Amino acid sequence: MEEINVILNNKPVKAREGMSVLELARENGYTIPTLCHDPRLEPFSSCFLCVVEIEGMKGLQPSCSTRVKEGMVIVTDNAKIRKARRTVLELMLSNHFADCMAPCRQNCPAGVDVQGYISLIEKGLYSEAIALIKEVNPLPAICGRVCVRPCELACRRNLLGEGAPVGIDYLKRFAADRDLASCDHYRPPVAPATGKKVAVIGGGPGGLSCAYFLQQKGHQCDIYEAAPQPGGWLRYGIPEYRLPNDVLDHEISTITELGVQIFCNRKLGEDLTYETLQEEYDAVILTIGSQKGTLVGCEGEDALNVFPGIEFLRNMEMTGQRVDLRGKTVAVVGGGNTAMDCCRTSVRCGADKVYVIYRRTEKEMPANPIEVHESKLEGVEYLFLTNPKKINKNEKGEVQSVTCLKMKLGEPDASGRRRPLPVEGSEFDIPVDYILAAIGQKTDVAFLDEVNRVAPVPLKIDRWGNIEADPQTLQTNIPSVFAAGDGVTGPATIIEAIAQAGKASRSCHQFLTGEPVEPAGEEFISRKENFRPLVPEDLAGKYMKHLRNEMPTLSPDRRMNFKEVELGYPDEKVAADEASRCLECGCYAYFSCDLKKYATEYGATQKAYGGEFREYEVDFSHPFIEIDNNKCILCARCVRICHEVAGADALGLINRGFDTLVVPSMGGSLNDTLCESCGLCVSTCPTGAITENKPFKPGPVKTETYTIICPYCSVGCTLDVHHRGGFVIGVEGGEGQANPEGNICRYGRFGYPYMNDPERITTPLLRRGNEWKPLGFSEAFRLIAEKVKEHAPEKTALMGGARLSNEEQYLIQKLGRAGVGTPHTGSYHYLGTPPETGGLVWGTTPFEELKNAGKIYLIGSELNRDHPVVGFMVNQEKVLHNKPVIQCTKRENSSMTHKVYRQYRIHSYLHFLRALNYMILDKGLENRLFLGDRCAGMETYRRELFKQDFNALLEKSGFQKKEDLEAFVDEYIKEQHAVVIGSENELSPAACMELKNLTLLTGKFGKTGSGLILLNEKNNSQGLFDMGLHPELLPGNVAENDSGHLKRILEKWNVKDIPRRNGTDTREVFMKGGFRNMLVFGEDPVGCAADPGKIKKQLGQLAFLVVQDYTLTETARMAHLVLPASLPYETGGSYTSAGHRIQEFPRYRDPVSGMDNVAQLLELMKEFGLDALRDAEEVKSEWMSLLPAKEEQKISLIFAREDNARDFRYGVDAVTKNFEDRFTLLDKNHVF
Predict the structure, then answer these.
(1) Same domain, 435 and 449
(2) 3-state secondary structure string across 362-398
(3) What domain range includes position 20?
(4) Hey, which end of the chain has fewer CB within 10 Å, N or C?
(5) Reported confidence tier of residue 1, pLDDT bands at 50, 70, 90
(6) Residue 122 confidence (pLDDT) above 60
């Protein structure tokens, strides 16, 4: 291809003729944002986000559709371009009535991902939930008990009239307690030591959090705490009945285990000098809290027994002595959580009567409503709209009573609450013995002189007496000193202190690493409330009523102590049920949305262009795909990929201008269209407008990825399996050998539920009557060996599935032949199939050759149903290059009807193909030169074929006229580039052989843009032949009577001989009940049988049946012993896909059973006296060494015997069957 010269961003570069500007820029490392572009599709130029400046052209040009030309001068980024892109984004966002982030998270000062961790709790992934929380909040067990829960205030369950939001903190506590109680609680990774040291002054929530975050960065953090024990307000301000000290200590230990050191009884300005800190530390963070109490603020507050509430609480914890209030009356002044702690503690100290005096109504109280409710249960009396005016003393100077005023509410004040105003003449006295003031706190900065004595500049204090720090970075006016928490803001909440710690630690890390101390960039967040407030009517009728699971508590009569009142959710079932109440308000595409990414990058805002906007109902009607037009940006990628790639045309654009939207092509539900549920629309959507309709709460959460080969059909697509903690969240297409564009079908994308099956077998199970008894692996293997050895070797058969790796299949046949000593090793999938079937794929056409084809013939291949990814390739050639696609099918309702140029209805594939080949030979139309050079067995084939009655073949084929067959033959032979595609899902082994014979006779086999693509039913069907897991084949796909190859095997295995069949047929022996033992690996012959009763009968006659599978399949339920199968990513291995392409992937994760399939087979081989290989890698080396050397051999034409009726379906795989059953059940409208 000719090269041309281009100037790109002032640099001369070479370009290929026909390239787009976008392709050129990306190839040279320049990023251009796009929203409507997908490399799988033709350019569309609808979003105009990818605009660039090209010298000599008027205005900005879309880079995706502009082709480079000689001498072109291109600029991809400047102020003009950025302004244009921002405008494009803001116009889109002005009609984007959607939430990027759930309101609960938005309302959390620390930004805890509430929706994410609730989704993990729903799945039982408690440590994963804690890991997510601890990204921004290291104290989940504490906050789960005492947080003020701003997240719950924002919960949209509040709009449903159920009386309570989701129990967010209850769930956090449940997960945290489970994690702390586990033997392997979550511990974040810690970076290598940087050599930097940080002194954190104050061991409260802010200080603990700062140390937690910075220690992970590799900086040594030392906390200096003035009190005898760490915790600050958590220990000395919150009573144990709300926050037990053992919980506090346990959570603190998760911070010190990272290397954080805590030094208690060290107070800055007394036991600790700032000079020492300067000498020993690189930075200081002040997290001193705001714990200096205030009094009531009225006449007589100097009376004895009037205390600041926080001192009352702190002194009891400091001394360990409870104040004796028996027979006393206590008045608590205030309405916050400290007031609640004071009044409830007074009850526990024996007070006869406890009042709470509050100047507003209960509605305006800042205290947690649950705390108010619990205090009332404990006997606390509330005096609302009441304010102390004067404290009256007795002769000893002790408080005797308090004179109060009644109040009324006026206009709102700065806090938004209505201002309380006194009611004239409403004074009244209340006799009291103690008054606890819980109306405010101050910051103690007594250390200030000590700091300023040696600091280069005086540390600044604001007018309220708090430390002054930059509100964005929390750096003070002394560069190496940072501050966070109540000492900066004044009295606030625990979660606000933690949030400030996150900000301060980030800035401190920047300082320590020499980076500029700058605030984090602002993330774009779309909010529905940017358009209008949500009201109850918005949610009415959309969600089922689901009342909150209330927190179990100690009964009021058992609370006269400091035992924890709230007991926590009792079990996982309650927690999961509460988690299910989450409405999932945030967008599933939060981490992947391109619109959000570019809006953040270009500083776009949602309110730049006000005015009209559209609202749509979300369409959940499709079982696998949901459509939310509120998030749609009209890029039309979904519409185009459905047409250009899938060929289903299930989506379309309707209306014009501002009213345009994407809808299913029939105007109703996607179920009413020709949608194939491939999910390509999901894969291409740049926002969250089209997403997977998942059967669980998807989060969204960040995931890790296993890259595997699809375990369904033989195309061999690469899958990226996204998981969190082993739970599979979703699957996307990887760019693999078979699917370089990342396209996958419904099997790969939606067929992963078996990976999360809660019924997974995790240990060997021995059947005792109707019950299963767990066994250890050693005991299970020993039992298998004992039972097998009770009968003659040939009375045992070993069957392995086509879903298994080459390594597993190889070991099964080796175990059978060399260990057990039986010739009967095979698979139900190919039971009775001639061994020649295993050679059909040799020399078949690679998928890439479809691009060079002139015509494509589908003979016995329902690609939409069985191998959709190959169907995508065919459809692209049809749509983009106008190539005719011709189909021959037995099906009346073929899934391919709307995708083909011409369709022939036939009755029998085998007879149709034999009629074709008969006519070709009879008319002398065969390619004699090709046959002479490349083929063998021609005369034998001709002789056997001509024994057939042509008219009978024609009649059985379903072709009504000989002339039609002649026309078909003539067209096919004349097309120099004809690719034929067949599938064993539709074709019998004999028909597959005749299909290959067709391409051989016409000389089209193995030529450029021509030949045969033959697809198998399962991902490693070919491996069964190559590994010798067939009664008539040895490893290497070599006939069992090949003496030379047999000698190599005996030497490799170090055995004298292996058994032969001596004419016996494994299928016949099985059907006649000739076996006494059977070991079945990865197959479900009962569940997948065409006649389950017949198979049950045969298996029921066995003395001992062993099944290895993921769950108790229909066959496993009949077994005497069941072994737990490991999942593909728990096993790894190699697989042989269509076209004889061998692909492999590693073992990513330890199996839940503790032993993967290969390890189980290796251990089982030891029980039979074999020198076992050590691991899967050695197994692979062994089978590869037994592959025959590649030689230029002639291809045989084979006239195969007519087949038995198919005994099994679904590739004899319960995974395939279960997905097909689920798909059929959910997607009833589609005839697949």
Answers:
(1) no
(2) HHHCCCCHHHHHHHHHCCCEEECCEEEEEEEECCCCE
(3) 3-77
(4) N
(5) low
(6) yes
